[in-house]
Amino acid sequence: VQLQASGGGLVQAGGSLRLSCVVSGSIFSNNHMGWYRQAPGNKRELVAYITNARHGGTTNLEDSVKGRFTISRDNAKNTVYLQMNSLKPEDTAVYYCNAVIKIGSSWTNIFQWGQGTQVTVSS
């Protein structure tokens, strides 16, 4: 399975970016999909996920990004998106996508990590 994230860049605080992640080698529509981020010195964290169609395509966002980020998917294009608005310097990180699965009360990634995309927000 290949996970190719793109769309990152340098943006001023308050700006917007739209990340894309194309997934190949997997039945994309069957997977729940998530966006993670990892800032320097921090653990990788799940910031948003979207369920598969069978589970209603419901979304969930981590509290720090609620109201600013939106996750969506296009099953025909095997692509998951992360629309990021009102960006803050603390959103600076490398962003990754992955298929996710819920084990107990936690969500975890399924596949090996692909290349992430750097997002840098200047103040």
What's the structural blueprint in terms of helices and strands?
Layout: E1 2-6, E2 9-12, E3 17-24, E4 32-38, E5 45-50, E6 59-61, E7 69-74, E8 79-84, E9 93-103, E10 106-109, E11 117-122
Parallel strand pairs: 2-11
Antiparallel strand pairs: 1-3, 3-8, 4-5, 4-9, 5-6, 7-8, 9-10, 9-11
Uncertain residue segments = none
Radius of gyration: 14 Å
Our estimate of the beta-strand percent is over 45%
Mean pLDDT: 97
Order of helices and strands: EEEEEEEEEEE
Please describe the biggest sheet, giving its number of strands, its sense, and whether it closes into a barrel: 7 strands, mixed
Using the alpha-carbon principal axes, give the shape.
globular
Helix amount, in percent? Answer: under 10%
| Annotation, overall tally of beta strands | 11
Query: DSSP helix count?
Result: 0
Task: Tell me the distance between the termini.
Answer: 37 Å
Structural class from helices and strands?
A: mainly beta
